[in-house]
Amino acid sequence: MIVIGSGISALTLAGILSRFNKKKVLILEQHSRTGGYSHSFSRKGYTWSAGFHYIGNIFNGKLAGIVLSFITDGKLHWCKTPEPFESFQFPDFTFSVYGEEKKFRNDLIEAFPEEKKAIRSYFRDIKKVSFWFVLYYLSRFLPAFFSRPLELICSVFDKLALMSTEEYLKSKFKSEKLKSIIISQWGNYGLPPSQSAFMIHGLVANHFINGGYYPEGGTDKILESIVPSIIKNGGTILHNTSVTNVIIENGRAIGVATRSQKNKEAPLNNYYAPVIVSSAGAYNTFTKLVPEHLNLPFKNKCLELSRPSVCVALYLGLKDGINSLGFSGANCWIYGTFDHEDSFLNTELLNGKPSFCFLSFTPPDKITGKVNTATIIALTNYDSFKEWGHQISGKRDKCYYELKEKIAAGLIEFVTARYPGFSSMIDYYELGTPLSAEKFTASHEGGMYGLPATPERYRQKWLSVKTPIDGLYLTGTDVCSLGIVSSMMSGFATASYLNGPAGLFKLVRHMRKSVKRQS
C-alpha cells in the first residue's frame, strides 16, 4: 500500500494497518521530516512543534484515546495544561477558562447572570452538534446500510449544526461581550463567526471542555512511538519525495509518479501498489494529483471551497522567569477588540500592528522545570506573501525579510503591551509565514486546516474515504474535520473502510483488547 504524506492521519492509518493487518506500507513525504504539522524542529538549542499546541481530553475509555494508545503502543505520557488552561484577554476584560465544564458554565453565569438560561442552553447545544459530528464522521466510511440511517438521524440536527456561528450567537445571546467570550477559541478552526459552521465551534468548545493536554517530552514522542511498528512490519518512509501524479489505468489507481525534492532534474520514479491513499488534502488530490481528463464532477466545488485559513507563526526561545510576568504556561488568546470579524482580518498585522494573537507555551522541561519556548500565532492572508512564492526559500528579496521583521516586532510589542517585560525574556525568534507552511507541508497556499470549516463544506457528500477512482482513497482533515485528533481519527476511518464492511467493529474490538493488555 502507498500513502501520500506523513502527517498524523497517514501515520495513524499506516500504524493500524501495519499492526493489525501486517501490511507493508510505503509512505511518501515531500519534506525532509516525518509528521506534517506534528513534527518538531530546533534552532539554537530550542525546540518547537510546527503546529501541535494542545489537544482536549480524549482519554478515559474514549475511542480517540483507544486509537492513540494502540498506535503508540501505550508509550505516550501526557501533561495537563496548567489551570486556568486558557485566558481570553480583551483591552479591559479577561476571562479565565478552567478545564472543568461546571466551573466554566458557572463562571459565565456569574459574569452574565441575566443570560443564565441562554448559557445553559449553549452548553447543551455544543453537545448536540458534537453528536451530529460523530454521525457525520461515521457516515464518511461506513457501508451504505449503516451510513444512510446515520445521515437520516443527522438531518434532525442539520439546522443547528450547519447554521453559521454568527447566526447562532445572535439567536441565543443579547450581550455582545458574552458573544465575544463564547467565540474566543475561533483561532482553533481559523474562521470568524460569520463564516464558520456552528458545528465546528461546538465541536472545538466541547473537545476542550475538560482542559488541554500536551505529550510529555514534546510532539516528536508521538512520531517516535508510531513509526517503529510501521518499519518493523516492512514499511518504509521516503523523505524528500514529492508525488507528481497518481497513475491511473483503465479507471483504476495503480501507482504514483514521484520526483526527488533534492534533485528535481532527476527522472520521475514510479511506485506501484493495489491501494493508494492520499493524505495530501482534497484540493491537492483532486486538482493536482489526479489527471485532468477524468473530469471529476465535484472538482469545481473543491476549487470553490478551497479558501484556506493561513497564519504567521513566531517561534520564541525564552530566558528564565515566565512566572514573574504572570504566565503559568497556559494558552493566551489576546485581542485588541471585542470584534472577532476585525480580529480575523488583522489588517494592520503587516504594518506591525496586530489586533489579535494566540500565545502558546510548551510544557515545563521535565528535568529543569523551565518553560523555554513559546509560539505566537496570528491569522493573515496568503495574497500578502505570494509575490515572493516563486523565489527560493532563504534567498528571497530583501523586502520579504523586512516584512517578516516588522510582523515579528509587532507581535512581540503586542504581547509586551499586555505583559510588560515580555520582550526582555526573548533570547531567539524566528517567523514562519504561509510560504514556509506551503514549502514544508505542501498544503494549498500554506493552509493550516485543509478545506475551511464552513457550513457548505460539511454538506459535500463526495468528501469521504472512498473516491470515484477505484484503488484511490482519502484520509486527513478533509475526510473528517480539522485538528490533530480529527486527523488521527480520519486515519482510523480509512483503516476501518479498508478492512471491509465490519472493519470498524473488528478494529475497535482488537484495539480494546490491545490497550487492556498494555494497561
Major sheet strand order:
7-6-15-16-17-14-18
What is the helix tally? 17
Helix content: 25-40%
As residue ranges, the low-confidence spans are none
Question: What is the topological layout?
Answer:
Blueprint: E1 2-4, H1 8-20, E2 26-28, E3 40-43, E4 46-49, H2 63-71, E5 78-80, E6 86-90, E7 93-97, H3 101-111, H4 116-139, H5 144-156, H6 158-162, H7 165-172, H8 176-182, H9 198-207, E8 213-215, H10 220-232, E9 236-238, E10 241-249, E11 252-260, E12 269-272, E13 276-278, H11 282-289, H12 299-305, E14 310-318, E15 331-335, H13 340-345, E16 356-361, E17 373-380, H14 398-418, E18 426-432, H15 434-441, E19 472-474, H16 484-498, H17 503-518
Parallel strand pairs: 1-2, 1-13, 2-9, 6-15, 13-19
Antiparallel strand pairs: 3-4, 5-8, 6-7, 10-11, 11-12, 14-17, 14-18, 15-16, 16-17
Helix pairs in contact: 1-2, 1-10, 1-16, 2-17, 3-4, 4-5, 4-9, 16-17
Task: Give your account of this protein's structure.
By secondary structure, the protein is of the alpha/beta class. The chain has helices at residues 8-20, 63-71, 101-111, 116-139, 144-156, 158-162, 165-172, 176-182, 198-207, 220-232, 282-289, 299-305, 340-345, 398-418, 434-441, 484-498, 503-518; strands at residues 2-4, 26-28, 40-43, 46-49, 78-80, 86-90, 93-97, 213-215, 236-238, 241-249, 252-260, 269-272, 276-278, 310-318, 331-335, 356-361, 373-380, 426-432, 472-474. It has 3 domains: 1-40 and 66-71 and 216-306 and 452-519, FAD/NAD(P)-binding domain, CATH 3.50.50; 102-201, no CATH class; 310-445, no CATH class. The protein has 17 helices and 19 strands. Strands 7-6-15-16-17-14-18 form a 7-stranded mixed beta sheet. Strands 9-2-1-13-19 form a 5-stranded parallel beta sheet, with no helix packed on it. A hairpin with a 2-residue loop joins strand 10 (241-249) and strand 11 (252-260). The radius of gyration is 22 Å and the shape is globular. The model has no long low-confidence stretch (mean pLDDT 94).
